[in-house]
Amino acid sequence: MIVNDAAKGRRTSVVLAVVLGLLQLSVIPNVGILGGRANLALVFVACACLGGDARKAPAIGFAAGLFYDLAGSGPIGLMALLLTLVGYVFAASGRSRVADDFGGSLVMFAPLAAVVGVVYALVLLVLGISPSFVDAVLLRAIPGAVLDCVALSIVAAVLSRTSANSGGLGGGAHGRGGYTLRRGL
What we know:
Largest sheet: 2 strands, antiparallel
Mean pLDDT: 78
Number of helices: 6
């Protein structure tokens, strides 16, 4: 039986956004490898946009990126631009949701996390905010991408145990907000 509950997917996404936002503001500044920190806005965009609606993905990416920019000390708008593009790429990929196909999602997420981190670090280097290339790329961007992958793994494990089959906005395993209930075989 297919049960259409679009509100459940939205509630899951809102709760995920609030929890990741609070963690980004409170815990992430204190946890890092070398100089790298996790970007939970990128993790949220991956969870909300992978295999989702390509029309909503840029708005989700922009909002998450703007939150990241306003919460940090980098240039405002840079991460918003990067996450807008990444959100569209994730949505257009046609992949399954993070909780449904974690392996495929991680294979797509890891290189994009590294690219986002390196581009962000290079722009900080050009603007004079970062002292050197080694500091920007090797000590911040690459360890940050590793932490992003770890954070995505944790979030995917949590999402796979929720009753909604998806962490995305407005969609379940069968698109358009439905998920399958199976009774007996």
